[in-house]
Amino acid sequence: MFEFGRELRRVFGADGLNGPVARTEVLELLDLSLLRREAAAAGTAAARAGSGERAARWAEAAALHREIARRTGEAESLRRSGSAAEMSWKAAGGDRRRLGEARLEQGLTALVGADLFGDPALMRSAREYLTDALAKTGTEPGPRARAQAALAGLMSRRALAEGDFELALEAASALDAAVAALDALVELKRACRTEPAAVRCDRAELLLGFGVRLREPKLVERARADMATTGEQLDPAYQPLTWARTCELEGQARTAEGESAGRAEPIVEGARLLADAAASTPEDHSPLDWARLQAALGTALLTLGEAADSDPALLGAQAALDRAQRVYDRHPALQARSVAANNRAACLAKRAERTGDLAALAQAEAAFKAELTDGPARQEPLAWAVAQLNLARIYEARDEIRGRADGREPAVLALAEALEVFTERGLKTLAETAQAALKRLRAPGRA
Asked: pTM above 0.70?
């Protein structure tokens, strides 16, 4: 898949890329080492550029550093992206178009930060920057369509996080409009094919999230069909990361269809799609994209293991989640790490429940307690809350095996503390998981 990326390095060599390197379709082909080199070169070029070009060069540097942050979760790269976007804003002077481009870079950087770390302040900043970017773009079709697409994506994220169906309807309409605008730009060769494809992915994620939440199979089916069509229109050799994301969402949709219908075949098909996409995405090209695919594969196999009562599926799920966790552990504050860790704990508990293996639960308990005292969770509130959630799941599983309620009180305490953190951070999915567990434990029959 990545032969073209190697060919780029051979052709451009030490001279770097010529032209607007911030184009999404080009960025996908660059491996991390070349991306870092181009980001450093873009910063140097921006510092040396004349006043007429300085704003554009800083905007390119911001896009490159942001892509590094998106792939790696590095807070320092995100900071550099924000700094470069700020320099672009300052260099724009009274040029309204350049001011709009700079604001768009600032908004996109804040949005990536919110996606990575689940920070509500970054989400608010993204909304402010993107709204201002849209106001400053005027009638320029390209910048305006990109600002509208980013705002629509932000709205869909808010709708999913808050479970707001009315906002979801508004976001879906905005995403439809953004897809149409970007499709028109592709026809005019003023946008890359990956741009409307990325918005379609946002729309599918919205449909899938609410389809699962509302138990509405038509929404899930539409998300799956849209991703299958979008993936067919992309070439994995030239748009590898966007193509992998379409496979990820299609795989998740198939898994959701199988789970809701109580059928193993769609879940198996979903897991196969996810495994193929993970195998086609080298870890060193984009560590977080690879880890996200591994985590999605682990979740699909966990669903299959629970549906079919299959220990091999659960074992495969644990292995995939372990691979994802290895990447996520480099940056404990990542929001995705918390979700993967929670699913891994559920997998451990389910396997132990099937076999009555108290020793395995004891090992898991020791690992989570070590994370609380000596590991990343000691200083990172979100990692700490997820470790508490995982401990509660272990206590609950042990009580199920023993037929006693010895772990009820410590589990309730751990869940209450975790729920407080999730609620403060606006992490609705994790908060709902903690609330459901508390409801089970506080049921009269569990006392």
From this structure: yes
